[in-house]
Each structure stands twice: as structure tokens, then as C-alpha cells.
Amino acid sequence: MTQGIDSFPSSAVADHGYSDGKEAYLRRLKLIEGQVRGIARMVGEDAYCIDILTQVAAVNKALHAVSMGLLEEHIGHCVVNAAATSDEAGEAKVKEATAAIGRLLR
User: Are 106 and 51 in contact (CB under 8 A)?
Assistant: First the structure.
């Protein structure tokens, strides 16, 4: 059985770059979730293809904005902190971020 993040003491929860904006990210993701449900409803109602594609493009753009924000905060927080710790830790975080960027570009 897995535990939710709320069941861990606050000292066990990692401080991530996005922590300060967590509520904003959650609000944006809830909006995106609603958009996706709306697209499913459109398909179920046999909406016009171009209208559905327009909504899919909007969801993609919204997810891209979330991704870019998370990436910027990861670099500004996690990568910078790792680089301040040691060159090796910094290099590892840069490689991790580069791999994440590669996944986003696929």
C-alpha cells in the first residue's frame, strides 16, 4: 500500500523548484483536465473535426506552458543548487534537464 504525500512528515517532502507556485500549477492542470473532458464530450457528440482539433491544440499549448514553467524552475532551483554543491552534481542535473528537454521535444 502506498502512502500519499500528505502522510509523510514535512521534513520528508522534497523542496522542489515549483513548490512556491504549486497551487498555480494545480489550478492550471485542473483547467487542462476540464478541457480534455470537454474534448471527449465533443467527440461523443460528433462535433466538427476542426473544432475538436482546435481544442486539442489549445490543450497542447497549455501543457507546453506548464512544462516550460516547470523546466525553468527546475533549472533555476534544482540545477543551480546542485551546481553549488559540486561540479559532478551540477553536471548530473544538467544531463537530467537535457534529457527532459529531449522528451518534451519528441
Answer: no
